Amino acid sequence: MGKAVVTVKIMPDAVEADLEAIQKDALEKIATFTGNDETKVEIEPVAFGLKAIKITFVMDESQGSPESLEKEIQNMDAVMSCETVDVRRAIG
Questions:
Q1: Which residue range forms the structural domain that includes residue 28?
Q2: Number of domains in the chain
Q3: Which of 52, 61, 62, 65 is the most interior residue, by most CB within 10 Å?
């Protein structure tokens, strides 16, 4: 099997949520899930001062769906939702 490049979008539960703390905890969960630290983080303005965290990471396709990771992140403090917004097969 190959590698997949996955992007998750994390929405905080409030404008004043600590994005750095959410990002740090999410990156730890992703590293545990994937077994590597190949990630890219973007902060995306949504509306009225609310910002989403988009994290792109590489995982082995044999792990199946990132749904369990999504649920773990969604259950973190100050997180309203987490959804997988993109999955692509890595080339090369």
A1: 3-85
A2: 1
A3: 52
